[in-house]
TrEMBL record:
It comes from the Eukaryota. SUPFAM superfamilies: Cupredoxins. It catalyses: 4 hydroquinone + O2 = 4 benzosemiquinone + 2 H2O. One of its GO terms (cellular component) is apoplast. GO terms for biological process: lignin catabolic process. Keywords: Apoplast, Copper, Glycoprotein, Lignin degradation, Metal-binding, Oxidoreductase, Repeat, Secreted, Signal. Its cofactor is Cu cation. The lineage of its organism: Eukaryota, Viridiplantae, Streptophyta, Embryophyta, Tracheophyta. Binds 4 Cu cations per monomer. This is Laccase. Residues 33-146, 159-309, 417-556 form the Plastocyanin-like domain.
Amino acid sequence: MRRFVFSLAWSFGLLLLASSLASAAIVEQTFNVEDITVQRLCRPQVITAVNGTLPGPTLYAREGDTVIIHLVNKSPYNMTIHWHGIIQFLTPWSDGPEYITQCPIPSGGNYTYKFKVTGQEGTLWWHAHTSYLRATVHGAIIIKPRLGHSYPFPRVYQEVPILLSEWWSANVVEVERNATDTGNAPQRSNATSINGFLGDLYNCSQDQTYKLKVKQGKTYLLRIINAALDEQHFFKIANHSFTVVALDAVYTNHYETDVVVIAPGQTVDVLLKTNQVVGSYYMVATPYRSSDVNSHNVTTRGIVVYDGASQTQTPIMPILPDSHDTPLAHKFYTNITGLTSGRHWVPVPRKVDEHMFITFGIGLEQCINPGPGRCLAANSRLSANMNNESFVLPQGRGASLLEAFYKNISGVYTKDFPNNPPFEFNYTDPALSTLNATTIAIAFAPKSTKVKTLKWNSTIEIVYQNTAILGTENHPIHIHGFNFHVLAQGFGNYNATRDEPKFNFDNPQLRNTIAVPVGGWSVIRFQANNPGVWFVHCHLETHLPWGFAMAFEVENGPTPGTSVPPPPANLPKC
């Protein structure tokens, strides 16, 4: 009898395995990266794009699929692609950030990215991870459930990716280069686009307005992606509300709202019910200004057009929030909770092995080569740091961080990123935003390439503390290779005695990018069960070249199945 029971169980297991394998597939595409010329804002503009489109091709897969992307770099620039939010378990060589997990693919070169989509469903995205090229080199990743599985929400009539991005009437590589040369902030963007369309608020763009055609009485799934380099957005559709069902490709409890708030790097999935009178309604993306730094208006709009709507009717415009409405943004960011009954939900690990307190913000660095237009006040240049360390990519050191980790190469990075800032101060004091002797004394941070080493499978809790040095703003922090639980967020200086009782251990959000509040803090927790070297950085692109980054070195586990595999044969060389 025991043998018979075992045989049945074994046979049933084979059936499950066969079913699982049958529902998994190989998704294989070629990404040709090259320069194209497009007409925008009354002039032709050369941009770098994938397969000749902006946005680039949408990558569709199901949970369990293997994705193979052959990247052919026909552009004049170095190139890498990051698959933003893909966990990359045991495939760190495909994560993509330049000089972190690979050296860049040179002009005329190629590289094959290969990874498996495991335990993830929803909306993610891919983008260039070199220079400012993700301004035009980006696209959506749509991960559907395995065959036979359904969404944890009612059936929808149609799924629609909505990508918000920025537009420069300039070469974005030159924009970054000019900022580097001057030590100042880069030229701001000239416009915002929805799915590549600038919209009718901009010159010569009346025929470049995105239109979403809908049928009355249906439910649509909007997969909203903020692909902008620096702009956080409020997103609204006139006379309509949304039901949030997922954040960063993790299902949430349903949350009703008439506005979506989304930072660069984040994704939000919402249900849109077309329950209004037949007509046309503007959808609007307008910047959320968490600070006044270089404030400029790059609002854009598309149109939701009901089937049967008059062609001559002026679309209805939504009432927009004030651009500085931080309470509204904070409400959206903190009121949504995780769906614990959803597939792939991960409970909060309760035992913490490593505690980190990471301050960050804008600072200064010494102007080494002073000259006309190359220095700011106090013989300085703009910089950024985490725990008073300003990160430098290991360019010119012969290997990426991951190669150095795998091959035990010295001289590429050091393992002494601090768990705490070097000194305490009133981190969110508004007086720190003014450049004076006191500010200068704490604004300078050394340049370094430091990582934090984590034991495999250890649990890490991080307090992210925003600072007000030279001004404060909402900073979206992205961790590669992991999702993390958002336990709590608040304003002012974090205080464990006061704030730990606020931790949500029951149903917190699981995210890969968190918008740390302006003048505030966030607490996250995750399990370091993915060996490799994983980048951590602000997703406001202006801040990354300034040094707003660090990396985690996660040690190998005890078995080959918990250790970094060998690099692929065609890994680009430095």
